[in-house]
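Sequence decides. Our protein:
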Amino acid sequence: MIMPALVGLTGQSGAGKSTVSDIWRDSGVSVIDCDRVAKKVTEDNSDCNKELSKLFPECFDERLHLDRRKMADIVFSDKQRLKEQNDIIFKYITKCIDDILKSYDKSFIVLDAPTLFESGIYKRCRLIVSVLADEEKRFERIIARDKISADSVKLRFSSQQDNSFFIKNSDIIITNHGDFSELKSKALNALEQIKEIIYGKS
C-alpha cells in the first residue's frame, strides 16, 4: 500500500495556521487536524491518560478526565515538564495518525500540527509550510480567542520557536499580517506551489 505524501502545516500560536487549514480544506484538500487527534487520544480513561496521570496526578480526576487548562499552566512554565508530557502524548498521536492515513487514497494529505517539529513527525513530511505573524498580532488573537491571561500567553510563547527557526526549517512560508482576504490569497497561492511540487509542473 502506497501512503500519501504528507505536507506539514505548522506555525506559532495565533499566527493563523488553523485558518489556512480551513481554507485548504474548503478547496478540497484532505487535512488531519492534530489538535483533534490529541483530544481523541486524551479522552477519559484512555491509555494515554493512564500514563500521563502517573506524572501529572493533579491534572486528573477519578475518571481520568484531563484538566487541559491545569496541564497547560504546568507545562508551559516548565520546559522539562513539557518534554515529559510530549514524550508520552506524541507516541499516541503518531500511532493514531498512522491509523488514519491507512484509510486515505490521496496523493497528499496536509497534517495540521502545531507541534510538528517537537513531535518529530516533520521527518516524514515531503513539504513543510509554516504560518507566521508578528508577535503583537498573535498576542491579541490568542487573548481574544482563548480568553486567557496575558501571563499565560507569554508562557505559551516562551515554549515556542521564533520566526527564524520556522523560516530556516520550512519549504514555504505564509505571513499573516493583514486581513482574511489577504491571507486567503496567500494560502491558495501556497496550495498551488504544493501541487506543483507534488504533481510536477503542468
Remarks:
- Residues 5-191 form a domain with the Rossmann fold fold (CATH 3.40.50.300).
- The first strand starts at residue 5 and ends at 11.
